Amino acid sequence: MQCRDFREIACSFLDDELLVETNHEVIRHLDGCIDCRGELNARGELRVKMRAAVAHAPGLQMSEEFVAQLRAQLRKRTRRRRLFGLFTRSGE
Amino acid sequence: MFRSSREDDCAKNVEEFEATALPHLCKLFRIAAWLTQDRVAAETLVQATLSAAFDSLDQLEEKQDACLWLVRIMYETRNKPHHAWWSWRTPRKLASAPDDAPANIATFEPRTPRDVTEEELLSALRGLSPSHQEVILLSDIEELTYKEAAEVLGVTVGVVMMRLMHARKMLRAGLRNRAGGRDETSSDTAHVVAS
After folding, report:
1. What pTM, to 2 d.p., does this model score?
2. Is there a contact between B25 and A60 if contact means CB atoms under 8 Å apart?
3. Is A90 within 8 Å of chain B by CB?
4. Helix (H, G, I), strand (E, B), or coil: what is residue B155?
5. For residue range A34-45, what is the model confidence (pLDDT) as tens digits?
């Protein structure tokens, strides 16, 4: 495997989505190539940083009020179902 | 007064649903907020998703991943015609076909930049096309497998792989440009200070 080939599939290797044989080829290549080991680490770090960036982004955080509102709605919905149940049973 | 068996069933349903859905609420909201780019639209989408999920809780199989099930329901809810008003609230239109065309990027890439800030990353990610953002969001950020992302997006695994490959290349290229621009700016500033 050449460095060019490795870089095309490095992210899939991180995802653990490669075939077993290809994984072995990648590991063999990495054993002998310090540049590609560095590149793999850089891509892994980038992904971790991206997850952190999204997790910290203010516009993507849910407010506590919204969670409370969802719970309340869920209970209201259940009460409605319960009432509907009483209604259908009284008609039986 | 004793509770009827129907009341017990309802209470059990809510408890079961909360135990199933609430642990994944943050993830659901993050995806919704990213897709809609609007807090109110994201909250409405999550509400509609939970409502649909609550009604079909009996369809969730024991071994099924609840998170993936919810994400799938969210995508279905979002694509329903009567929820089309989200599309005009959403500033971006979801494109598909042109993004699957081969990206015009050199095959051997320079190194991935390491010194990028979270702001630069988010900005580079937002610079991608919506369908590329979507696939990065599902796969790299929310850690869905290629197969799961394909199921959610309603495309084949091959399409997910191609989109991901292009999206990641473009993201890295965008970051390199930003890092390069920043270095040039800081060296310009250094020149000005030195002179």
Report:
1. 0.76
2. no
3. no
4. coil
5. 999 999 999 999
